[in-house]
Amino acid sequence: MAWVTGASGAIGRAVCQTFSQAGARLALTGRNADKLADVAASLPAGGCDPIIAPGDVSDAGQVTAAADSVRGQAGRIDILVNSTTCPIFGDFLDLTDADWLSVLDAKALAYVRTARAVIPGMIEAGGGVIVNVSGRGGHQPNSPSHLAGSCANGAVNTLTKGLANLYGPSGIRVNAVAPGPVASERFERIRAANQALAESGGVSERSGTPVASPLGDMAEPAQVADVILFLASKRARFMTGSVLQVDGGGTASL
């Protein structure tokens, strides 16, 4: 059983489709039940019907309720894929404390809540897998309108490594993928926010331009989902604490 949060987003939807094609049974969580139903309807025919467990991952009570619902119907949660986002972009000087807290609450703390909800059961079962979706900005924060999100992604990367260290002895693997720009409605909002900052003089035009990669400007959601499927599979059974850059080579590092 694979529980996918943020299941109605571009990457979350692709994860559901990719996992379903691989034969996984799925549980879908997001704030909008209608969008989750649309994702469920898009899955390949012939597989198990997914469990739809709506919930807002920024609310600890709703996370607990969603996890309990999944376990109540499936018996256990073997894989957790965290793929939530927070659509708050803007000039650093304009973002309020409330904006920053909202971003952290919907991303880094959300991943804390979901991990806390599944880890005891994974320990009891003798193991499990958690894959966190962070972002390239957690390592290379070059999007001027997305600094808050980049900081949240940095926290996700640290959480990933810390949980891997804590629960590896219990058979739980924890890894992350850090996509660069991904073709989606959300990326178009980020691009527009960066361009608006550049035009207003808030940042230089160069700073407002997405960094191209050797393989092209952006990934398709399914390309990110393929990497997540690999990390969740037994083929990655000796990988934990890793943050894989899925950005077409846009992050230059040794």
TrEMBL record:
Gene3D superfamilies xref list: NAD(P)-binding Rossmann-like Domain (3.40.50.720)
SUPFAM superfamilies according to UniProt: NAD(P)-binding Rossmann-fold domains
InterPro entries to which the protein is assigned, alphabetical: NAD(P)-bd_dom_sf (IPR036291), SDR (IPR050259), SDR_fam (IPR002347)
Highest taxon of source: Bacteria
Family: Belongs to the short-chain dehydrogenases/reductases (SDR) family.
The protein's name in its UniProt record: SDR family NAD(P)-dependent oxidoreductase
Species, as recorded: Ferruginivarius sediminum
